[in-house]
Amino acid sequence: MGRGPSIENRKNAEDARRGKVFTKLIREITIAARNGGDPATNARLRMGVDKALSANMTKDTIERAIRRGSGAEGADNMQELRYEGYGPAGVALIIDAMTDNAQRTVADVRHALAKHGGNLGTSGSVAFQFKKIGELAFATSKPGAEDQVLEIALDAGADDVQSEAGETLVLCTPETFEAVKKALTAAGFEPLRADVVMRPENRVAVSGEVGETLRDLIEWLEELDDVQEVYHNADLPG
Predict the structure, then answer these.
(1) Cα–Cα distance for residue pair 175/157, rounded to 1 Å
(2) What is the largest CA-CA distance in the chain?
(3) What is the mean pLDDT of the chain?
(4) CATH number assigned to the domain covering 79-238
């Protein structure tokens, strides 16, 4: 009979996805804690903890990751790696990873790129096409919300505010990210997303088969255990 996936199968898939998200958040917190285990004085750790709490991670799990990163529970051998490369049609890619086995990770990334018509580049080959920037997204469908976010964000030091279809995107430097987020949350605006990202300076339009191949590649890379983030400069439809 043509019955869809069972409730149990859907739950297992959701649990697996949630587990992968938690693994990446724990890794980020562990690495960030190397520069100090107090979120009050470590901006990167504070951001990691905020994201973990938003994902409903328990405080015990967060604290264990902080202790591990700060050396309280023995040293960990994770390292941060950034790969630069090209996807189909020359789309620029930045792939950030955290791994305890660099050889495994680079082999996995290279394989994913090769399977989708891409290739690994040298350090600096595409990074110049991106800028490190703070991004905060807010739901602003209520009357007056767009104007309020605009005013508060700019007063707090944001560089740009863009609104479309009931959502407002606030852009700022990594240095002003905390102040902008704090000002908006204090005014009652909880971000839908808030992170410091590598944002492309310009986007290239892709569609059809190239677009599908690129989507498959990004999904493949994001599914790799060692990959934390994937950034690209494609303008994907829909």
Answers:
(1) 10
(2) 60
(3) 90
(4) 3.30.70.980
Query: So where are the chain's domains?
Result: 7-69, 79-238
pLDDT, residue 12, reads 57
Three-state DSSP string of the chain:
CCCCCCHHHHHHHHHHHHHHHHHHHHHHHHHHHHHCCCCCCCHHHHHHHHHHHHCCCCHHHHHHHHHHHCCCCCCCCCEEEEEEEECHHHCEEEEEEEECCHHHHHHHHHHHHHHCCCEECCCCCCHHHEEEEEEEEEECCCCCHHHHHHHHHHHCCCCEEEEECCEEEEEECCCCHHHHHHHHHHCCCCCCEEEEEEEECCCEECCHHHHHHHHHHHHHHHHCCCEEEEEECEECCC
Measured N-to-C along each axis, helices 177-186 and 145-155 cross at an angle, to the nearest 10 degrees, of: 140
Which architecture does CATH list for 7-69? Orthogonal Bundle (1.10)
**Mean per-residue pLDDT, 92-103:** 95
> Distances in Å between the alpha carbon of 106 and those of 83, 101, 156, 170, 217?
8, 9, 40, 34, 15
Provide the pLDDT for residue 69. 86
50/185 Cα distance (integer angstroms): 12
